[in-house]
């Protein structure tokens, strides 16, 4: 992480036949997809890292997931660190790795919304355990679905779809349209939640939102999964619009393993928090 | 004796009123447990830029290199992790 501190980090994705491929990407792919002079093509992944100088020239690039060094497999982190080390003098960085920046989570630039953290507990694909962080802007109308009520009342999960629909696993290879390569988005969130007022705290009214929800994606087979939602919502003393929300989702996700031809039920969990905090 | 008894009752009632609701306590504990730690969120210590064009403009102004992650034939958002 320290080695990446001097860099501005960005990403790009696309197909080889797309129009408007940036010249830096063309440079990397020309090398990546060139036919080998002899023998079999080298194994490769679909992810590359390109290191560009300050005027946009590709100084070094490497396959981000091909991690063989001298015929031995090494950890991807180790391979990446070595490649960055190799490129540092070419970019005039020397030992300029520097201090770690402070943590800067995605925000909505002051607009109100909900931040969703998602994690899939897959022991076979440890990279999927890395948290997803999504921020979803909410309108006044969206917040109204969670407005204060002195009595317990139902809240349809469909009304909370803008943010609940972010609960799906990190890897788009999980559920991706084979033609477009875009992930199948969540098309419906169903279930009836309860919004129950509870005792106030710190001068604020509070309510609990809980229940079971089912999420169905737009792919074939009506693919769906479900889990439990719990959230604590606070309200100003004299207003019905929510002031803050904190909660979680705890569910199970059926991951179909094409290699082993089985379906495993994995823990899919999420935490929610309203922003700005 | 009577005053002591009344005080005890009052203290009991005050304690009851300020006791955290058990469901709220359980939910907030669940939120804390599932919210990723700073260590898990380390990639947000990097200086991310949304697009290559903006990164290139900044690189010239700030005289800094760019690290670009290129994904072939898949679409997702590497910054959010839904990728």
Count the E strands of chain B.
Answer: 2
Shape estimate of chain A: globular
How would you state the average pLDDT of chain B, rounded?
A: 81
In terms of structural class, how would the helical and strand content of chain A be classed? mainly beta
Contiguous low-pLDDT stretches of chain B (5 residues minimum) are: 9-18
Main sheet of chain A?
A: 9 strands, antiparallel
Oligomeric category: heterodimer
Q: How would you explain this protein's 3D organization?
A:
The two termini of chain A are 27 Å apart. Chain A has 277 residues and is mainly beta. In chain A, 12% of the residues lie in helices and 40% in strands. In chain A, the strands form three sheets. In chain A, strands 6, 7, 8, 9, 10, 11, 12, 13 and 14 form a nine-stranded antiparallel β-sheet that branches. In chain A, strands 2-3 form a two-stranded antiparallel ribbon. In chain A, strands 4-5 form a two-stranded antiparallel sheet. The longest helix of chain A is centred in the N-terminal third of the chain and has 15 residues, at 76-90. Chain B folds into two domains: 1-35; 40-83, no CATH class. Chain B is built from three helices and two strands; from the N terminus they run H-H-E-H-E. Chain B is elongated and about 75 Å long. The termini of chain B are far apart. Chains A and B meet through strand 1, helix 1, strand 2, strand 6 and strand 7 of A and helix 2, strand 1, helix 3 and strand 2 of B.
